[in-house]
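Weekly modeling sync, notes
Attendees: S.R. (lead), two postdocs, one rotation student

Agenda item 3: backlog of single-chain predictions. S.R. asked that every request posted to the team notebook include the full sequence so nobody has to chase files. The rotation student volunteered to paste the first one in as an example of the format we agreed on. Action items at the bottom.

Example entry:
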Amino acid sequence: MHDVRIHTLSKPIGLNAGFHAEFSNRASSGLVHGGEQWASSRFLISPHQHDVAEFYLQVSGSTRWQVTSDLVSLKPGDLLVVPAHARHGMSGPPRTSHHFYYAAIDLDAVFERHVGLRSAWSSFVMVHNQGSGRCEREFRQLISEISTDSPFAQEGLVVAVDALVIAVTRLLSKGSTAIQSLVWHPVVHRAVETLDTSYERQWTLRSLAKEVGISPQHLFALFSKQVGTTPRNYQERLRIDRSLELLRHRELSITSIAHELGYASGQHFANAFRRATGTTASAWRKSEL
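Predicted structure, as returned to the notebook:
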């Protein structure tokens, strides 16, 4: 396991569930701390600063931040990256409950492994990327590496940190092309990216096809051939994979997890989970905790 201290967060006012992990071996991965939190409208992050950059992704709900003299509003899918030593915090209490990921990363450690990234960050003041949610997959992988005791944990953590920084670097680099688009048809790539970043929505084949600008029949044929499964099954797999991560947080009820993932009811989630895993969510949680 990493040289890390993981704190389950349940006492601060307004914080419903989540965890915070601190790392003492910063030099190897660059990660100083990271975590995932679910909070109510009473939860407020006071102004503070770090000696490294902090990455923050709003998953649900909305928050308002002040970064030095700038005011920033974050909605679901919005990414905020604050540079080292910049004072930042919420400008006021959130209006709603919210869910977010965060990670403090020493970028120099990443640049030592990937020298070519440094130039893209040379004029970095602040990153505010609105509504793309493009880094949620990388954040989920990072959180999974932090919270799961797996073989080759340190190697997995380095890869996850690098993937997140590279994903954000692509946002900084205009005209960059995702690797997948070199392999998949562009329409399939857009459909996969749409499902990856909004798997909790009630997508039908028709609505997804309209989103990416193609007929339902053509999308179904292309997606099934190139991805190896149907859009519906792909989305279901994303939801179940995410549920396995969420079930490790004992503070989250199974009903709230079902709602987080976009299921119409707890029973719909229960049926989908049993089909995918052969067991119940409750039994899986007990076996993992």
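Discussion: group reviewed the output briefly. Residues 6-10, 175-182 have pLDDT under 50 and may be disordered.
Action items: rotation student to repeat for the remaining queue; S.R. to check formatting next week.
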